TrEMBL record:
This is Transcriptional regulator. It comes from the Bacteria. Keywords: DNA-binding, Transcription, Transcription regulation. The keyword Lipid biosynthesis does not apply. Residues 12-106 form the HTH arsR-type domain. InterPro entries: ArsR-like_HTH (IPR011991), HTH_ArsR_DNA-bd_dom (IPR001845), Metal_resp_trans_reg (IPR051011), WH-like_DNA-bd_sf (IPR036388), WH_DNA-bd_sf (IPR036390). It comes from Candidatus Cryosericum terrychapinii. NCBIfam families: HTH_metalloreg. GO terms for molecular function: DNA binding; DNA-binding transcription factor activity. It holds the Pfam family HTH_5. SMART domains: HTH_ARSR. Gene3D superfamilies: Winged helix-like DNA-binding domain superfamily/Winged helix DNA-binding domain (1.10.10.10).
Length: 110
């Protein structure tokens, strides 16, 4: 890292860092996190996710598209209905570790 002045820093290009930043920006959205929490219980369709989260169908569909495009959720067709699930165990683990971390902080602050 090279410092040009006290407020401007130029970092070397780092593809992994860019990918990680994009991933966490994707997760840094309350609606998307609500959807991921709902899908931790197993696959569901848009109506079911709306029922679990209280989000509108339009919002859930829009956020699922972003999550699906980034391979965070996967979809499965069953007739005319589409069911969504977490893409893999890593997504569940990431969300679970974040929840564990927050729960641990609560215990230490009591």
């Amino acid at each position: 890292m090279m410092v040009l002045s006290y407020d401007v820093t130029i970092m070397k290009p780092n593809t992994k860092l860019d990918e990680l930043t994009s991933f966490y920006k994707l997760l840094a959205n309350e609606s998307r996190l609500a959807i991921l929490l709902a899908l931790r219980d197993g696959e569901d369709n848009v109506a079911g996710i709306c029922g679990q989260t209280g989000l509108s169908q339009t919002l859930v569909s829009h956020q699922l598209a972003a999550l699906h495009h980034s391979d965070v959720v996967r979809s499965r067709k069953d007739g005319r209905r589409t069911f969504y699930a977490l893409a893999d165990k890593h997504i569940d683990i990431i969300v679970g570790f974040a929840l564990d971390h927050l729960a641990e902080k609560e215990v230490h602050h009591e």
